Amino acid sequence: MTGKLNIIALLLLFTVTGVAQTNLVTNPGFEDSVSVGWWLNAWGGATGILENETGSNVISGNVSAKVTVTKVGDKIEKISLMSSIVNAPEGELILTVVARTESAMFVPFKLSLKCQSSDGSKKWYGGDEVLLTTAPQRIKFIVTPDPAYRDSIFVRLSCGLNKTTYIFDDVELRKNVQLPLPIPTGRRLKEIVADKYPDGNLYIGGAMLSNVWETYSEEILNNEFSYVTPANDFKQTYIHPKPDIYQWDLSDTWVEKAKTNGQVIRMHSPISPQCSKWAKDDSRTAEELLQNLEEYVTALCQRYNDKDNILWMDVVNETIDKTTGEWFGPKPGTDSWENPWTIIGFDTTYSENFQPPLYIKRAFELANKYAPNIKQIINQHGTMNDAAWDKIKLLVKYLRDKGLRVDGIGFQAHVDVGWENETNDNGINNIVALGNLIDWAHENNLEFHITENNVFLRNGNEWKWEEQANTFQAILQTLISKRQSGVVTWNVWMIRDCDGNMSSANPVLFKEDGSAKPAYYAVQKVLEDGATAVENFEQLPVVFSLEQNFPNPFNPTTTIKYSIPAELHNGIMVQLKVYDMLGREVATLVNKKQNAGFYNVQFDASNLSTGVYVYRLQAGNYIASKKLLLLK
Predict the structure, then answer these.
(1) pLDDT of 534 higher than 70
(2) How far apart are CA 376 and CA 405, in angstroms?
(3) Of the candidates 506, 503, 501, 494, the residue with the CA atom closest to the CA atom of residue 455
């Protein structure tokens, strides 16, 4: 291995007990880093030297590790200091390191994990890039590796993008033993529903991935919701990835967890674009796809029909392209978001103007036959455009004309902040259109489900917490107002902002640290009394944070936001400074004692030239820095 320097990597074996390991990494203190447990790994012709560091350059204890990058590669310029463990425990892991450089310039650095399964397959997980300086920084990366990829875990301290010297110490990879979850004020959502809506026409729920079991997210899910959607763990992608292969471990576990916690389940188990790569393969014939569909739906329904706590199943999902209004179909290759099931064919006998894909009817035939105890839903994404929903209405009529049972329709409601103020393709306000759609569903003996509600903060709205609360409130208020005429359900898609895709858009009710956002209190208030106004319920932060400036790139002003945790109620000395890429200070934005709270600072770069700059926050021992780009 290039750059390994003949260092032998030792695998640290440990026994997982009820008490979390404090540190899983081999030789974390670097007392003898050049001979025990650590080695260099290099790519693209990069080379380096690993040594012990003693004396005045040590970060803590008597010894630190020193990595000197002597050559950067011609292609991939990377060197990593690595260590490995085996049989990592379940749940969320936290990797931390204290690091600095001997360079006067800001140098990029990244923490990552290479996780390996027992059969040798691998997954990579990486933290955000940070910028190191001569001052030591404690850097943290929180990750929940796939349970199948915990046989061996390789820790990477990636530092080879510049020819310079890095100093490392106090590395930890451990099970993330978190502080007690911050509990919101007021009653829990499930308590309010049980008290205020005992007629059973309203369900309030949350969706979660199994890869965040044993984290704040699962604790919040169980505290707040009596209705759960196990995200992607009932989908064909996982349960039936290939002919003759079935994986029931995650879905079975979900059923037992929900039973233990007194929760009901919606199986998000549709025939949909979320299908296996086997099904997406361009060589698949109509006959092969039909057999694959029939195997999966039949096995799924037979396995779970008699589970009392499974109330609903999504039979099909995203059948209509949200942008064109046409039936969503296949694409070349296996990596695109596509729907291969239309290859099975279309029903040309029903109507000259309405010829739906045959896979939809077949999926409902099997679900009707083998899951008569479970309510059966058509789930659709997009927004309130009439063209798509008119097609869904025709689809319901078509299926019922074929003698098939359809119990409800679902609207995913992945929307941007301010959606309630916008209009659909016919100029009708979205909230009015939503109310009209719910009325139509109930008039046609259909339940109405908001199945995957997110409110994204992006495109200039990154920190508009109160506006996000208003959007959640408007949607839920409309839904609740219709509960007297039929069943309505609401499900937030993911629990914390760090869960799942699009986490950078902060789309849900809880922050990464588990604290409730204004959106949570908006939902709570609507449930309690149907109030139309949402107050500012922003709580004090529980952790330090430095957020990415916005806008970025910028000209000539931008906003920098940061937080000081509530525990520092007596205040702390804070410095926020801006540097050029040579490490020269160009602006001091904050230099004073500040109390706990959320802060935003305007930076005016009118006197600076176009280029990349770095802003650095220091509050006590907390140090963080990020890049910003000025374009004139």
Answers:
(1) no
(2) 8
(3) 506
- Phi and psi of 442, rounded to 5°? -70, -35
Closest CA to 368 of 405, 397, 402: 405
Q: Residue 441's pLDDT band (boundaries 50, 70, 90)?
A: very high
Exposed, middle or buried by CB within 10 Å (0-12, 13-18, 19+), for 485?
middle
Could you give the domains of the chain? 11-175 (2.60.120.260), 199-529 (3.20.20.80), 545-630 (2.60.40.1930)
CA 519 to chain centre: 17
Greater pLDDT, 582 or 447: 447
Provide the token pair at 546: 């430095």
Measured distance CA(244)–CA(169) in Å, rounded: 49
Taking the C-alpha atoms of residue 407 and residue 316, their distance in angstroms, rounded to an integer, is 13
Q: For residue 28, what pLDDT band results from cuts at 50, 70 and 90?
A: low
CA distances from 78 to 42, 106, 110, 611 (A): 6, 16, 11, 24
Name the residue among 593, 453, 597 with its Cα closest to residue 520: 453
Q: Is the pLDDT of residue 532 over 70?
A: no
pLDDT higher than 80, residue 486:
yes
Is the pLDDT at 226 greater than 60? The verdict is yes
Q: Which of 100, 110, 108, 98 is nearest to 162 (CA)?
A: 108
Reduce the secondary structure of 444-479 to three states and give it as a string: CCCEEEEEEEEEECCCCCCCCHHHHHHHHHHHHHHH
Q: Distance between CA atoms of 367 and 358, rounded to whole angstroms?
A: 14
Judging by DSSP bridges, how do beta strands 414-416 and 227-229 pair with one another? unpaired
Instruction: Give the SS3 label for residue 390.
Output: helix
From the list 216, 254, 217, the residue with the least C-alpha distance to 233 is 254
- pLDDT higher for 15 or 345? 345
Contact 70, 79 (CB under 8 A): no
Query: What is the pairing mode between strands 310-317 and 264-267?
Result: parallel
Grouping H, G, I as helix, E, B as strand and the rest as coil, residue 242 is strand
CA distances from 11 to 87, 121, 145, 468, 474 (A): 10, 18, 19, 47, 54
**Phi, psi for 216 (deg, rounded to 5):** -50, -35
More confident residue, 506 or 343: 343
| Structure tokens, 168 | 């490392």
Q: Please state, in angstroms and rounded to a whole number, the distance separating the CA atoms of residues 244 and 448.
A: 35
> In 3D, which of 252, 370, 353 has the Cα closest to residue 305?
370
Q: What angle do CA 543, 546, 550 make, to 5 degrees?
A: 140
Q: At 302, is the secondary structure helix, strand, or coil?
A: helix
Please name the residues in contact with 48: beta carbons below 8 A apart, sequence gap of 6 or more. Answer: 3, 40, 42, 67, 68, 69, 70, 71, 79, 160
SS3 track for 405-452: CCCEEEECCEEECCHHHCECCCCCEHHHHHHHHHHHHHHCCCEEEEEE
pLDDT at 19 over 60: no
Longest dimension (CA), the chain: 84
Nearest CA to 424 out of 477, 384, 375 is that of 384
- pLDDT, tens only, 93-133: 888 888 888 887 778 888 889 999 889 899 988 877 777 87
Tokens (6 digits) for 560? 């920098």
State the Cα–Cα distance between residues 230 and 219, nearest whole angstrom: 14
- Taking residues 362-385, report their average pLDDT: 96
- CA-nearest of 122, 124, 127, 92 to 503 is 127
